[in-house]
Amino acid sequence: MKKIILFLLMTLSFSGFGQKLKDSILSKKLDTYRHLTISLPPSYDRETKKVYPLLFLLDGDYLFDPFQGAISYGNYWDDLPEVIIVGLAQNRENERDSDCTFDDSTGLPEGKGESFFEFIGGELLPFLQNKYRISPFKMIAGHDVTAGYMNLFLYKDNPLFNAYISLSPELATEMEVRVAERLGTFKQNMFYYQSSADGDIKKMRSKIATLDENIKAANNPNLNYKYDDFKGASHYSLVLYSIPSALYQFFAAYQPISTSEFQEKIVKLESGYVDYLKNKYEILEKALGIKMNIRLNDFKAIEAAILKNKAYNEFELLAQLSKKMYPKSMLGDYHMAMFYENTGDIKNAVRYYQNGFQMQEIGDLTKDMMLGKADELRVQIKKK
Length: 384
Prior knowledge:
Blueprint: H1 2-11, E1 19-27, E2 32-40, E3 52-57, H2 60-76, E4 84-88, H3 95-99, H4 112-131, E5 134-143, H5 145-150, E6 163-167, H6 175-183, E7 190-199, H7 202-218, E8 223-234, H8 238-250, H9 259-266, H10 273-288, H11 296-308, H12 314-325, H13 331-342, H14 346-357, H15 367-383
Parallel strand pairs: 3-4, 3-5, 5-6, 6-7, 7-8
Antiparallel strand pairs: 1-2, 2-4
Helix pairs in contact: 1-2, 2-8, 6-7, 11-12, 12-13, 13-14, 14-15
Family: Belongs to the esterase D family.
Organism: Flavobacterium cheonanense
InterPro entries: AB_hydrolase_fold, Esterase-like, Siderophore_Hydrolase_D, TPR-like_helical_dom_sf
């Protein structure tokens, strides 16, 4: 556990990536300014047409830095995408408690709690969407009372957020039942994470465990759900364990093909290796709103699966896909050459290796390699 804490603390050193800004919004609902800390991705100014997922943090005073550190670290290794992070300050004049005011009998917001709910949906989100390039995929996170409060957005017919990170939530009246029932109804992709620990506040753990049981019983195939119950952690330290767990759960589809994914899923397929690759990135776009070129290393993984299973006809399909993704590179010609070489048409294999020589190098594919392969196959033709 000490090693995990050390790792998580180290992620904070990555928080220098991108832009960290201060902003504020005058709320008519709350009759005051509310203050924000915003992290824009490193590519934000460079890729001016790109949109980014939103990670909105209640308790932004203390959740902002650990979330930004985890995102920056994961993005450095291409395990997590770039996101826009917005942290809302709630530590002035008991704002946190008054923001999250509930009616004890109904479990619904009342007074300032109701105004705060309307502020987020009617003022803050439109303000952010008008000012920053935000994609349709929006996450919200909170800790204890704010984690419980954010569940209210699930009650709306069209929830404002697609993903919820609930860190040791203090659940309002009947929330352990209502949230599970609501999560069981969604026809679109939804993401929900919650956590607790054996050192967590005891009066909260019972409801959290019941909510976990009820969500699992709902068994909604459209729900991406995970519950962590950490051993040896407290109400406060569980936050540092939970953040990477939640983010890596939500963005599993974004991550490059790993050794375990290759061995446990891809190489065991009898066919459809190229379809697997296309589906991986289609899910990424459909569920998370992230559109990106297929990584070169993911192409290499599918190449390896095709060769291992001798499914050589799939190289032709792979060539069509690689030509679409990297039209100026030699990757498409290389895959066509692999198709012909492994299906016995050496002359056409030579032709495509030669064609590839005229295209841009990519990864470990070089002009010398393409010419070398062509020359090697010419020798085989002469021997025949």
